[in-house]
Design a protein that fits this description.
Layout (H helix, E strand, L loop, with lengths): L1 E3 L5 E4 L19 H4 L4 E3 L9 E3 L7 E7 L12 H9 L3 E4 L6 H10 L4 E5 L6 H12 L3 E5 L2 H5 L14 E2 L10 E6 L15 E2 L1 E2 L8 H4 E5 L4 E8 L2 E6 L14 H19 L10 E2 L1 E5 L5 E2 L8 E2 L14 E4 L4 E4 L33 H22 L9 H19 L8 H12 L4 E3 L4 H21 L8 E3 L11 E5 L9 H12 L3 E5 L17 H10 L7 E3 L26 E3 L21 E4 L3 H5 L16 H20 L9 H9 L1
Parallel strand pairs: 5-6, 5-7, 7-8, 8-15, 22-23, 22-24, 24-25, 25-28
Antiparallel strand pairs: 1-2, 1-3, 3-4, 9-12, 10-11, 10-13, 13-14, 14-15, 16-19, 17-18, 17-20, 20-21, 26-27
Length: 683
């Protein structure tokens, strides 16, 4: 069996033989998926007939599915991650690829360049502007973007969604709601899910809601019992945007545990290739597919004739005939194959007795003589004779005259050495290497260099003072703080990054914020300090109004920021080292904002945050660095407002708790279980 691509180039030959007495056999084709997806034609070598040719289209190709997650490194447990459920669901029929870098500006181009047909994003609310543009262009050219909801997407989203969403999410079946968990009720007959059996055991307990409009019904592929959509989709150019209104894990529903989840993803992946085939150049669905390249009786590709008619785009079974000859229908970008024989065809042995007065005899012919070995031997003999003649003419055949041969060898060696010497040795970046060595030799706190000398000096003095207090009061002995440029320096070496917001500084570029976003996803924590508590002292529990706050809002616009809330009374930050009720700095009264624990919002008996996850973002306006600032002699540099020694002490305790929290996680949360454990041991 010979495999060739659409341009007739051979990909490989694969032998087979029929066992004695058997009417069927198998030829095994072992190829990388990239080469396998290029196969457009399989034919039996030497059998010049259309019946010995099988044409392949998108339906036989193994698609590549790229996966991206908005979960942080601490929260994304391997067996509980949304990507785990998606990967296990699509592995039987697609190749799964996860990017090596959490930075969206690196990960998304990596998936697109790798040839992903489908990109699945689990709980990613907002993409950087340049990444959003790249994904939109990829979808317009025929890609399929599948998104799953979650706390990030419910808080904010970009334009790459099929419907407008309401802010927040809807909880079903909880103790604080009158609504019951909703079952999956129906699949749209015009969607890829048409014909699927509606599972009776799938229940949805949380979802993001779509804003009702005139197109919502047409864009709904799957709906719940109350009529709200579970899956919506919309066409964008030649591609599609698909949104599952629940998470890809079991936190919002048990859909990922059902067989329907696997079948839905399989159909979406298959639909991505079918939609590309059936979409015209202007991005609209075509009702018919025109003939592209047809087969003649000898199994050769020929241009379509006048008698060939287009295929119906949505037809499932087509019998080849004069109006629909076997061949390829569509375009080079996407086509559908129609074969003379399919997998259900059976070939019976020809019986001469079935033809009256027939005689069977072979065609008269003689076997050809293979001249290739003789021609190769003659070419080799002529080459050797030519080489001997050249050596003879140059006087190098006589063994007593080796001078010219030695000189020629030395000349060749000199040329090789000279060429090698022209290649300069690789030079390592000594500055970046020294930065990495200094960063990992000791635990260090880092601050962002803003370009304002006064602010940068306060940040350095503040983290130096906090490092001194940590060395005196805890087992941690941090090194000197480091000033970093997020757009240039590697941030993964530092557990905590202090970022004083300067309203007069230039807005960071999208590339810089993408690096910060990747740092936060990989487990780092950024402490943004607007240092403007006095300016908004009359409005403590809101986060808006001042120039520094508005600048911070502009900075975070391209980040996938999760929902935030002031530190709850039972949060681990209140007991990571000291027991604290508030978190003052040079100013007091302003709240410290952390990631909200979505499952416990609104509960009066809210437990401590589970797991070892650390909030990737902290926001305050209390000017913490100024309260910690010390000079080399240990003298305090800035007075607290109001001037209160107790406030200064609480500011240092706030800094100690923040550092311990970023280094050790939520280990203190286990203390809430001590009474129950002691009671159990007593029994």
């Amino acid at each position: 069996v010979r495999a060739t691509d659409i341009k007739g180039r051979s990909i490989g030959d694969f032998p087979f033989d029929f066992p004695s007495g058997e009417a069927s056999t198998e030829a095994r084709i072992d190829l990388p998926v990239e080469l396998r997806n290029d196969i457009a034609r399989l034919e039996i070598v030497g059998a010049e007939t259309a019946g010995a040719v099988q044409l392949l289209d998108e339906r036989w190709r193994r698609r590549r599915v790229g996966l991206l997650s908005g979960a942080t490194a601490d929260a994304a447990q391997p067996l509980l991650s949304p990507l785990y459920y998606i990967a296990r669901a699509v592995q039987p029929f697609a190749d799964v690829q996860e990017p090596r870098d959490a930075n969206a500006t690196v990960a998304v181009p990596e998936l697109i360049e790798a040839g992903a047909s489908v990109i699945v994003m689990a709980d990613i609310g907002t993409l950087p502007a340049d990444v959003e543009t790249a994904v939109a262009d990829w979808v317009a050219e025929g890609g399929t973007l599948v998104r799953f909801a979650g706390p990030h997407l419910s808080a904010a989203t970009d334009s790459l969604i099929p419907v407008r969403l309401r802010q927040g999410d809807r909880a079903l079946g909880g103790s604080l709601t009158w609504q019951e968990e909703q079952p999956l009720a129906s699949f749209s007959e015009t969607s890829p899910f048409a014909g699927m059996t509606v599972p009776e055991d799938v229940l949805i307990k949380r979802q993001v809601l779509a804003e009702p409009d005139g197109d919502l019904t047409e864009r709904t592929w799957a709906a719940l019992g109350d009529g709200t959509p579970l899956v919506t989709a919309a066409q964008s150019g030649r591609g599609w945007l698909v949104l599952f209104h629940v998470t890809a894990d079991t936190s919002w529903s048990n859909l990922p545990l059902s067989g329907a989840f696997v079948e839905m993803l399989r159909r979406v992946v298959a639909f991505s290739s079918a939609a590309r085939t059936q979409t015209s150049a202007d991005g609209q669905f075509a009702a018919t597919i025109a003939p592209y390249r047809l087969l003649d009786g000898y199994g050769r590709f020929v241009p379509p004739g006048a008698e060939a008619r287009p295929l119906p785009a949505n037809a499932t079974t087509i019998v080849p005939g004069p109006q629909h000859p076997p061949g390829l229908y569509g375009t080079e970008e996407g086509f559908r194959s129609l074969n003379l024989l399919d997998e259900t065809a059976t070939l019976a042995r020809f019986d001469p007795a079935s033809v009256p007065d027939a005689t069977v005899q072979p065609y008269p012919s003689e076997a050809p003589t293979d001249l290739r070995p003789w021609l190769l031997a003659a070419a080799l003999a002529l080459f050797l004779l030519d080489a001997l003649a050249v050596l003879w003419l140059n006087g190098m055949v006589n063994l007593r005259r080796r001078g010219p041969a030695v000189a020629a060898m030395l000349a060749v060696g000199f040329v090789v050495v000279a060429a090698a010497s022209m290649v300069g040795p690789a030079v390592a970046d000594e500055a970046s290497d020294q930065f990495a060595i200094d960063a990992v030799s000791e635990t260090r706190l880092a601050y962002v260099i803003t370009g304002n000398s006064e602010i940068d000096a306060a940040s350095e003095a503040g983290l130096s003072g906090l490092s001194r207090v940590l060395a005196e009061r805890s087992a941690l002995e941090p090194g000197s703080p480091v000033g970093v440029d997020p757009g240039r320096d590697e941030l993964t070496f530092f557990p905590l990054l202090y970022w004083p917001v300067d309203p007069d500084s230039d807005l960071p570029t999208s590339v810089t914020m993408a690096r910060v976003d990747a740092y936060m996803r990989q487990g780092g924590t950024v402490l943004f300090d607007t240092r403007d508590q006095l300016e908004r002292s009359s409005n403590l529990n809101t986060f808006s109004g001042t120039p520094a706050v508005e600048r911070l809002r502009d900075m975070l616009a391209n980040l996938d920021v999760p929902p935030l809330e002031p530190v709850p009374v039972d949060h681990v930050l209140t007991k990571a080292f000291y027991l604290l009720n508030d978190f003052p700095g040079r100013y007091s009264g302003g709240p410290l904002w952390v990631e909200a624990v979505e499952a416990n919002q609104g509960r009066s008996d809210r437990p401590a945050q589970p797991g070892d996850g650390v909030s990737s973002i902290l926001i305050t306006g209390n000017d913490l660095a100024a309260a910690w600032a010390m000079n080399a002699a240990g003298d305090l540099l800035y007075a607290t407002i109001p001037s209160d020694p107790l406030q200064r002490e609480m500011a240092f305790r706030t800094g100690v708790n923040i550092v311990m929290y970023t280094l050790t996680g939520n280990y203190k949360a286990d203390q809430v279980h001590v009474p129950a454990l002691l009671e159990r041991l007593g029994q």
